[in-house]
Amino acid sequence: MREQSTDILIIGSGIGGACMAAGLSTSGASVVILERGEQLPHTPHARNTRSIFVEEHYRPKEMWRDAAGKEFNPGNYYYVGGNSKFFGAVMLRYRERDFEALEHADGVSPAWPIHYQDLESWYCAAERLFQVRGALGQDPTEPAHSAPYPHPPVPDEPAIASARERLRKVGLHPFSLPLAIDIDQWLSHAKTPWDAYPDTRTGKFDAETAALAVALREPSVSLVTGAMVQRLILESDGRRIAGAEYVKNGERFVIRANIVVLSAGAINSAAILLRSATERHPGGLANRSGVVGRHFMNHNATAMLTVDPRKRNDSVYQKTIGLNDFYFDDGRGGPPLGNVQLLGRISAPVLKANLRWAPDFVLERLARHSVDWYLMSEDLPDPESQVRVDGKSIVLAWKRTNMTAHRGLIRRMKEVFRAAGYPIVLARAFDKRTPSHQCGTIRFGRDPAASALDPFCRAHDHPNLFVVDASFMPSSAAVNPSLTVAAQALRVADYIQTTRFAA
Questions:
Q1: DSSP run (H or E) holding 410
Q2: What is an example of a Pfam family matching this protein (predicted)?
Q3: Confidence of residue 502 (pLDDT cuts 50, 70, 90)
Q4: Smaller CB count within 10 Å for the chain: N or C?
């Protein structure tokens, strides 16, 4: 077994790990990033709708099991940049009230151990890092910004501008989604949407092209790909993390580090901690509280197609509008429902992937006349919704919560869209094969008996271990978590530097 060493080890190159690397790149410390995947190659598959959605060219080759023991192929991607390589590039801030306890129809979303203001300046820094395009003053739930977006919003295409006006006329407040995309560069390679399309460095600002690119400018930062981390290793005192064991090209390595940052994603970070169990820590590392792997959340999500047979939607990318009119209430004095935003343009091949029985000509006609939306409601934390490991296999026992709110959002939006002149409204829920913002499995908090991490994502049980990805979140809110993960990662990186942390 070969041994290596570094000052700081980061496991995972998704948004959390890449932003940690960017934030630590000027610290003077040596930083090694381990990524189990390789860089996405630039091939024709990357803009081929059939390759992506029908042939599933990019899906991982692994299988997980659900609570009943049934195998399924997860939609978690393993490439440099992680799942962000396929994300919709939406960089929304959590609302100020998302950091407070918030009552929903089916329970309470818990308060965070930090407040919105603790992250506000880091939200600004993350928006600069990801070169976010957006506009203030359109969304009534928009939290306070101390700086404007770095760039103006991505423009609506004509069919989408018409949809925006229809929604305004029925009393809603459509706003320009904040997006990490250079639309001109993206379209110069091919006229496709970007949502769910892999970014082979052609216009999205994702974990690789934004944060990791900044980090790797420094010679003290290095990236190792194809490195599958098996477990973390403890020092003899049972508290400090000595490093990690990983496999690359069939060879086993141990890398030792003064500080270890786990950023493998809400499911795989939890699995690594659980697999690292020792005699002294039989429940896994960082797990004195018993919360590791528990409180798994995944947004309740539905695709909604609004169809007007009289109007043709000739847009290419489509995804420029969001709605938060029902974010904190249902518009009639009831509890929160959630967020609505445009999907990337849905084409006939995308529909075919989900409706294989339907004739192609029907799907083509449907796609020509539909505007396509993503409805998202908060999934509340439940300790029995959890990630487990069984040998080398991952078991994901997800228990959906707060479906009263999600069903209410579907009903409310059907009413709104019909009032806006769309006589046909179709809805289909996303299944467990589609990650919809997985989070919550290694929650942070002030009480070591009820959380695994402190407010700076440092493990209560291990003074030199940080976990910085969406697993730290104690609630899922109802907007995309990417920007919040990025902001917290930059905050934690600054904490490590400014306190000259040497655990």
A1: helix 403-419
A2: GMC_oxred_N
A3: very low
A4: N
- What CATH number corresponds to the domain at position 440? 3.50.50.60
Q: How far is it, in rounded angstroms, from Cα 235 to Cα 239?
A: 7
503 inside domain? no
Residue 63 to residue 143: CA distance in whole angstroms:
40
pLDDT by residue (tens digit) across 286-332? 999 999 999 999 999 999 999 999 999 999 999 999 999 999 999 99
| CA-to-CA dists, residue 221 to 26, 183, 300, 322, angstroms | 9, 30, 38, 37
Q: Which two tokens stand for residue 350?
A: 């995308």
Q: Which residues contact 157 (CB under 8 A, 6 or more apart)?
A: 314, 315, 316, 317, 318, 320
Please classify residue 463 by burial: count the beta carbons closer than 10 Å to its beta carbon, then call 0-12 exposed, 13-18 middle and 19+ buried: middle
Residue type, 488: Q
- pLDDT of 25: 96
3-class secondary structure, 327: coil
State the total domains in the chain: 1
Q: For residue 61, how many other CB atoms are within 10 A of its CB?
A: 6
Cβ pair 453, 459 in contact under 8 A: yes
Q: Does some domain include residue 155?
A: yes
Q: How far apart are CA 289 and CA 276, in angstroms?
A: 16
Question: E-strand spans in 278-415?
Answer: 300-307, 321-323, 339-342, 370-377, 386-390, 393-397
Overall average pLDDT of the 349-365 stretch:
74
